[in-house]
Specification:
Keywords: Signal. Helix content is 36%, strand content 17%. The protein has 826 residues and is α+β, with helices and mostly antiparallel strands. It folds into three domains: 204 residues, no CATH class; 343 residues, no CATH class; 145 residues, no CATH class. Bound molecules: zinc ion (ZN).
């Protein structure tokens, strides 16, 4: 291994080995200058390729042909193997367009995409930020040279070791790949996982191998970082670097439009005059598809999109994956392509590698992660997706299984025992693969599409057969949980839907450059009238838009949640009898119960998003309203619905389930979930939205009326002739007063860490959300609203003390009165 270490004194080492090769010769001539190209490569193993790769005396050398200087290459780096807790293998570190330039005896590597935004598409964990701007003029691929008007930064300068007779430059490969080029370092990923990096240890870092291909060079490296604390003292990461030739002719680009959910790629284009500087252009990312027969309405592509199913994917899942991939053909037909996409087994050649960034692959990772991702490799000049790697983590099937059992078993008699059959899990895998492949075709999440269908449509078998539960597979509305037993709905899992067909047609139909923009605009105009084709994703508006939701279906959030809870009650009620009577059954009880609470909380949170909610219409027409506020009556209905669920529940505290695995804190998960829901109603963000609406004078529910109504629901027991308050309600009532107290304290002061820690322990919410929630009431009428609400609570508490049915209730009420005395309004 020592011979393959990165050496900072590579040239010295090389000279030393050159000297060793000729020990008997004094060789005065060799000492007069550096060794020649021929001398250095004596005895080297050489691979031809995009760059020649030489291996000599354990050192890798790269040979850059003279005609490659000035050409654009894509330098991509991804994690190949990681320490515990760090991102995941296959995750992208960086992807940049670079260029080699020669300066005397030095090779500079320029980063042409430093100013570009080349986001990896489709990570579930790391959704891209807000969308870019709509380009404002016709795009011409001839303009696609990256700006010459600005100076691209030099990423790295490397000494040329020797020059070949044909002008090629020989450089030390370790200078590129030893891990110290900041832009290609996994340091951020390590630090996010709490590995504080102190530096690279060259003695424990080396190039594993470099392989040259005709249009690519791929280097696998092992880099060890010293850490700033003693345990562990180091972190070792395997990184795969690839240098790939970009297409000689950039693909014809399509301009990005925020009304269709494509991942954007932004580049800088030189202006028409020097004064104009550079102009930012935003394109969609997509594969290059060209018709074999351009005149045919439906044609096979010149080159289809091929996804290899990696050899490590278990045999029993491969056919479902193939279906999930090829399901997209239906959408490509809408764009004029027949057999546009297909799944294949990889060739059985020994050098086939699933990490090869020249091919698209579905990979299978046996890691305890309930997730899947679809990063892509993109030519930023045109948005062309060159290849994509879909990563499916084995444990995603566990999550899929519990979701299917909980949501579908009331309507699917074949799903009433756990574990589910391979056929059922396979159908969920088909859905998951379709969704992930959708990302790698360029599509981002469309969380509006899960709200496209009405309750009636979701419960009608004919409609359900036609559309499924959602208008897009790119939403998170995975399963129809609204349909009730007896409705007769059979198609329960989401499939490629009307929006997906529209999006692929919009993004992939080959169009005449002269009329492209007008045609795309016309299609969007037509689509604008159809709720099945609407798009809303992960951007600013989605934070407050109750029609953009994850894990929810149906245009009526409240009714969907009510019906969903009825199904959840059925499946959770049957859970104890549905699992095998052994240890594996206990684990199934635990994980399925946790999933059920998450679903319930998600539905109730979605209903509460109506409060202060703003619906976006996204027609992008200045004289049409883009945002409308939810009517007060609907906001009130949502508040009442959520309050009606903030109660103890035997369904969601099933003793038969909890008594199999929870000796301590059996009710904690449920109680925390209820607390989070209450905190959501008391969030500073809601206050801010209500205050905003009041200032605009539109659908304004005054903060004071809102808080008073919330309080009256939360303390409804006080009106009983004989007041009895159960432990959960006592907990929520205490939390209510404590939260108001914290928010008033945060009116003028930052939220103290001790308060954040206390709320974190109570609710499991993140510190950032707690701070925001407690402090963003600043600038609203909160103090006055609290005064009014608590002014009414005081006398009610006093009377309830007298009517207490038991001593615990009395003590609780006395306790609240004590807290109240410290708050305004008394
Ligand atoms: Zn996704």
């Amino acid at each position: 291994m020592i011979s393959r270490r990165f050496s900072t004194l590579f040239l010295t080492a090389l000279l030393a080995t050159a000297a060793v090769a000729q020990p008997a010769q004094p060789a005065p001539a060799a000492q007069q200058g550096p060794p020649s190209y021929t001398q250095i490569l004596e005895g080297a193993q050489t691979q031809p390729g995009l760059l020649k790769v030489h291996l000599r005396a354990g050192h890798y050398l790269l040979e850059i042909p003279a005609d490659m200087f000035g050409q654009n290459l894509l330098w991509h780096a991804e994690l190949a193997a990681v320490p515990d807790g760090v991102a995941s293998p296959g995750a992208q570190i960086a992807s940049r367009v670079i260029r080699f330039e020669r300066r005397g005896n030095v090779v500079d590597i320029r980063d042409l995409s430093a100013a570009l935004d080349t986001r990896a598409a489709g990570s579930e964990n790391d959704p891209p930020e807000n969308d870019g701007m709509l380009p404002d003029h016709e795009l011409d691929p001839a303009d696609l040279a990256v700006s010459e008007a600005s100076v691209p930064p030099i990423l790295l300068s490397v000494e040329q070791i020797a020059q070949a007779p044909d002008g090629a430059a020989l450089i030390d490969a370790s200078r590129l790949f030893r891990g110290d080029v900041p832009d290609f370092s996994p340091q951020d990923e390590l630090e996010e996982a709490f590995y504080p990096v102190a530096g690279i240890d060259p003695d424990r870092s080396y190039i594993e191998r470099i392989v040259a291909h005709p249009n690519q060079v791929a280097a696998n490296t092992v880099v060890t970082y010293r850490l700033q604390r003693t345990q562990p003292s180091a972190a070792t990461v395997e990184i795969r670097h690839t240098l790939t030739a970009l297409p000689a002719q950039p693909m014809h680009p399509r301009a990005f439009d925020p009304r269709v959910g494509y991942f954007p790629v932004t580049y800088l284009e030189a202006g028409s005059s020097r004064e104009q500087g550079t102009v930012e252009r935003t394109l969609i990312t997509r594969y290059r598809l060209e018709k074999k027969d351009p005149s045919a309405a439906l044609s096979e592509p010149v080159k289809p999109i091929v996804y290899y199913i990696s050899p490590e994917v278990p045999v029993k899942w491969r056919s479902y994956m193939k279906q999930g991939i090829e399901d997209w053909n239906r959408a490509f037909e809408a764009a004029g392509f027949k057999n546009a996409i297909r799944a294949e087994d990889p060739p059985s050649t020994p050098d086939w590698n699933p990490a090869d960034t020249r091919v698209s692959v579905i990979r299978w990772l046996a890691q305890p992660v309930e997730n899947a991702m679809g990063p892509s490799i993109i030519d930023p000049r045109s948005g062309e997706i060159l290849a994509a790697h879909v990563l499916i983590y084995e444990d995603v099937l566990k999550l899929a299984q519990s979701l299917y059992y909980l949501l579908a078993s009331p309507n699917d008699p074949q799903a009433r025992t756990l574990p589910l059959s391979d056929e059922k899990i396979g159908q969920m895998l088909r859905y998951i693969v379709s969704h992930e492949v959708g990302h790698t075709l360029g599509l981002r999440h469309n969380h509006r599409a899960s709200q496209a269908l009405s309750t009636e449509q979701l419960r009608d078998p004919a409609s359900a057969d036609r559309f499924g539960p959602v208008a897009s597979i790119m939403s998170y509305g995975r399963i129809n949980y609204v349909a009730q037993p007896g409705d007769g709905v059979k198609r329960l899992i989401a499939e490629i839907g009307p929006y997906d067909l529209f999006a692929i047609r919009w993004g992939y139909t080959p169009l005449d450059a002269a009329t492209e923009r007008a045609t795309l605009e016309r299609w969007l105009d037509e689509a604008g009238r159809d709720p099945l084709l609407a798009f809303g994703g992960e951007d600013d508006a989605s934070v407050v838009d109750p029609t953009v939701l994850t894990e929810n279906i149906g245009s009526d959030r409240i009714e969907a949640a009510r019906l969903g809870l009825m199904n959840l009650e059925r499946s959770l009620g049957a859970l104890h009898g549905a699992v095998p009577n052994d240890r594996s059954g206990i684990e199934l009880l635990r994980s399925t119960y946790t999933s059920a609470l998450r679903l319930r909380e998600g539905w109730l949170a979605a209903a509460s998003k109506e409060i202060g909610g703003v619906v976006e219409h996204r027609t992008l027409r200045a004289r049409e309203t883009q945002f409308t506020r939810v009517p007060v009556a609907r906001q009130r209905e949502a508040l009442r619905f959520v309050l009606s669920q903030l109660k103890a529940s035997q369904t969601f505290l099933p003793a038969t389930v909890l008594n199999t695995y929870a000796p301590i804190g059996a009710s904690d998960e449920f109680v925390r979930s209820q607390r989070r829901l209450l905190m959501r109603l008391l969030s500073g963000q809601v206050y801010g939205q209500l205050s905003d609406a009041a200032l605009l004078g539109e659908n304004a529910w005054s903060l004071s009326d809102y808080l008073t109504e919330l309080q009256s629901g939360l303390f409804e027991e006080l009106g009983q002739p004989s007041v009895r308050i159960d432990p959960l309600r006592r907990d929520l009532q205490r939390l209510y007063l404590a939260t108001l107290q914290d928010q008033l304290a945060a009116y003028n002061e930052p939220v103290p860490d001790s308060v954040v820690r206390r709320v974190q322990a109570q609710t499991g919410m993140s510190a950032a959300v707690i701070r925001l929630s407690l402090s963003s009431g600043q600038g609203t009428d909160l103090r006055a609203a609290v005064r009014v609400a608590l002014g009414q609570l005081g006398p009610r508490l006093e009377q309830a003390v007298a009517n207490s049915a038991d001593s615990t209730t009395r003590a609780h009420l006395e306790d609240l009165r004590g807290v109240l005395a410290e708050l305004p309004g008394q």
